[in-house]
Amino acid sequence: MKSSVSPDIFPPRGHEAKRVSIVDAAAGVFCREGFAGANIDLIAVEAGVSRQTVYNHHGDKEKLFIAVVRDLTERCNAGIFATIATFPDQPKDLEADLTGFAVRLNQNCICNRDGKFLRKLIHTEGERYPELFAEWREQGPGRTWPAIAARFARLAYGGYLTIEDPDVAARQFLGLANAELQTTFMLGGTPSEEEVVQSARNGVRTFLRAFGKRRSVALVEKQSALAGA
Amino acid sequence: MKSSVSPDIFPPRGHEAKRVSIVDAAAGVFCREGFAGANIDLIAVEAGVSRQTVYNHHGDKEKLFIAVVRDLTERCNAGIFATIATFPDQPKDLEADLTGFAVRLNQNCICNRDGKFLRKLIHTEGERYPELFAEWREQGPGRTWPAIAARFARLAYGGYLTIEDPDVAARQFLGLANAELQTTFMLGGTPSEEEVVQSARNGVRTFLRAFGKRRSVALVEKQSALAGA
DNA sequence: AGAAATTTAGACACTCTTGTCTAAATCGTC
DNA sequence: GACGATTTAGACAAGAGTGTCTAAATTTCT
User: Fold this and answer.
1) pTM (2 decimals)?
2) To 5 degrees, how large is the angle CA B157–CA B161–CA B164?
3) pLDDT averaged over chain A?
4) Residue B212: helix, strand or coil by DSSP?
5) How far apart are CA B29 and CA B24, in angstroms?
6) Closest nucleotide to residue A16 (Cα to C1')?
7) Residues touching nucleic chain D (CB < 7 Å)
8) Residues sharing a CB contact under 8 Å with residue B42, sequence separation 6 or more, in sequence order
9) How far apart are CA B156 and CA B210, in angstroms?
10) How many whole angstroms from its chain centre is CA B59?
């Protein structure tokens, strides 16, 4: 059934472009309206495509939804791993480097379009499609958390941090970095760059007060000088 | 139009009971299915009531939805303030007391039925009903965060903690206490009591490593004994 | 028991949406 | 320019859900 030269890509090119634009538009509409409220006509309009084309490509509202989630999951995971690769393994300025990492994680994986959309779909439809989101869970949290934890473990091994449980530390790192953004996330808003930086700065400062080596020692010495009198 | 003795309550009693049962059932259905997917027939069945009665009481799907959100907001806020009242102002064992507080906050305000439902509705329909959730925002986060922050400020003033910005500390306290529960929350699950306690314990320990006075001194002395050789 | 209010079941009109089908139009390629 | 594949517009059947209406049944209070 293949039309021409290339062995794997069935349709020439415009075909694939439409597919992408449909999935893109569908992601937006599913997020705004929820699965039940999403209207295929509207998706078609937003994709700049006729309704029939939507059916030609995906056959079914549910299949379209599944395609959307797979798409988002894949891109989000890729983004997260790309960002994890920028983790400061040999930091010059631990605080600044960790803050930068936290900001990148937020901007590139959590606050961007894909991150927001995937998070919202998981929230709204997660219970209805357990298998679908189980996949996300295994590929996402199941693999990214350990990856981040491993980086923190290495940092601890290198003498930069004092950590007992790297998994706990990794989760707490993110909890702290996002502590100030929760309310905004709740209502689907996107925090400004400034807010992200501020939250990351405050979070990392606290994180290092708890786990940083030199800092905590310095702090303690000052404190014991005061307290030990 | 009042029927009898009591001056404020229009209908006898069964009336009000039905109203509650309808709003209750509606909350569950709206959460499971989303506003668009929620079916009034189903709500009626789950409330043990005829469909017409639903319309008699609330007139409209949208009005019913608004009643649900108001109901949840009110109860959740009451629960939060009741829990804040148990904040350990004069702790005997700071770590244990703060852990207890974190557990109570989670169990009574975040993991309970009302908390889960309200959170989900805000996530799914928040963007569509800005005014409605603005009310929640003002009454909820707008008043509870400062209340918690004030308690931490008092604790700092009493010499139990070293805190620069009580607002930041309050947000970070919650971020840490919930750090291990995020994935479960995402998919709408309810963490077990054990998980809640574990997360709170780890979170509070880190919180006190960062902000606690004595503990941090003790820790530092131990650390400086090792490091200062 | 009796009167008033409330609830119920069922039918109903109306709208909206999904998914299919067809014939014409458009696109890309040779 | 011609061919094949894809896209398009529009009509269409089928189903589901909202909100209304009515008359009968039930509850509640006196």
Assistant:
1) 0.86
2) 75
3) 89
4) strand
5) 9
6) D6
7) A 3, 10-11, 14-15, 18, 48-53, 56-57; B 3-5, 12-14, 38-41, 51-52, 55, 59-62
8) B29, B33
9) 13
10) 29
